[in-house]
Amino acid sequence: MSESATPEPGAVPTSDLPEVDAALREVADLSSVPLEEHHRRLERAHEVLHAVLDRARGGS
Predict the structure, then answer these.
(1) What is the tens place of the pLDDT at every residue in 15-56?
(2) Closest-CA residue to 27 (of 15, 18, 40)
């Protein structure tokens, strides 16, 4: 997340990584999608964020 500016309330935070930004957008609007869709979106965001952190640590 960019440290130079604080996002407006309700705004989706952004980072310098497009895949992280996409994952954040996927979960930002959970209230607008059916409950059945929540698990898939949260699981996908978790996978993306885990992969980014793993790469940052020098993982595969």
Answers:
(1) 989 999 999 999 998 999 999 999 999 999 999 999 999 999
(2) 40
- Residue 60: the pLDDT is 59
Tokens coding 16: 């310098």
Tokens of 41: 């979106």
How far apart (Å, rounded) are the C-alpha atoms in residues 47 and 1? 18
Alpha-carbon torsion 25, 30, 32, 34, what sign? positive
**Could you tell me the residue ranges of all domains in the chain?**
22-56
- Are the C-beta atoms of residues 49 and 20 closer than 8 Å to each other? yes
